[in-house]
Amino acid sequence: MDYRDIVAKVKVNNFDRLYLFYGKEYYLLEDAVGKFRAGLNPDMLDFNLDIIDGKEVQLDQLLSSIETFPFMDARKVVIVKDFEILTGTRKNFSDSDEKYLLERLENIPETTVLVFIVYGDVDKRKSMFKKIKNTGVVCECRKLEDMELFRWVKREFERMNTVIENAAVAYFIEQLGYRDKNSDMTLTDVKNEIIKVASYTGAGNTVTNDIIEKLSPRKVENNIFRMIDCIGAKNAPEALKIFGDMIFEGEPVLRIMSLISRQFRIILKVKDMKNEKMKPAEMASKLGVQEFVIRNASRQAENFSDSIILEIMNYMVESEYKIKNGMIGDVVSVEMLISRYCIRK
Asked: Care to name a GO molecular-function term for this sequence (predicted)?
């Protein structure tokens, strides 16, 4: 069942008796906990809200919590986090305990709402998962899709009394890379970036692309793009300035080198895929990056031959080895790269 649909029902006190929320989008998992909490009488939470560690709970304790009636409220909510049977481990529950619990789940009191929260994946082969799926509500909390993310980001900015146009929302999302194939960024990270940008912008003011770029966690990646642009244009002074600014801001040299190597690998792959007549969207999907990365790489590819790209990549590998073995300084290594390939034709 869709997360938004579940939350919409809970907000109007339309509760099922059994839920399972799981997945890697922890922000949504915690948001779900908050929504169930909000459905209770705030003055009676101590009596009617049980939050249980599912890795430590035993059968008797869990059944007692489920079967206890609410006090001065219409319902009681029992939240079990990381229940061991659902995660594929077993410490406190025997086979007979699990079998008995499965039977009891058929008869949860009408006044009890039982919610399992698993921070990560569940073992879908387990009888417990199948039971909840058949008799309750199961929701996987995964990354938001593009339009869902767009609406969520815009709404969060508006909640902070900050004006942001649709184009700026799209640019903000693009800069974050939340939807990148290999990104481990969560909505919690996105929310923190929204708070940072909104706080810098100020209440009632408008978020601009310049502000987003200035505060973007991808600023270092953007600087890498700019530096490679300068190398391709044979503009050594500007490339060295960008590199120096990154060093001044505390960016580790080995990370800078890693990002340079990564970008040249992407450039080489984009050149190959262009020869195969692939479209930018296809390239982005295959490489697991946003389309703007493909656009940058495609533009930069015009300034570097395949042989020069391979030479630069080999230089980076050799330099990293020399740096780690004390044969050359890290800063000098990058400065030499810039100088050498700004001279090369």
From this structure: DNA-directed DNA polymerase activity
97-114 per-residue burial string, b: 16 or more CB within 10 A, e: under 16: bbeebbeebeebeeebbb
Q: Which residue has the higher pLDDT, 19 or 126?
A: 19
Q: Directed axis angle between helix 146-159 and helix 166-176, to 10°?
A: 110
Q: How many other C-beta atoms can be found within 10 angstroms of the C-beta atom of residue 126?
A: 15
pTM for the whole structure: 0.65
CATH 1.10.10.10 fits 219-343, yes or no: no
CATH class of 146-215: mainly alpha
Q: Evaluate whether 329 touches 336 at the Cβ level (below 8 Å).
A: no
The rounded distance, in Å, linking the Cα atoms of 45 and 30 is 17
Q: Enumerate the CATH 3.40.50.300 domain ranges in the chain, comma separated.
A: 3-140
Say what the pLDDT of residue 182 is.
60
Is the per-residue pLDDT at 176 higher than 90?
no
Mean pLDDT of 248-253: 79
Structure tokens at 257: 């080198």
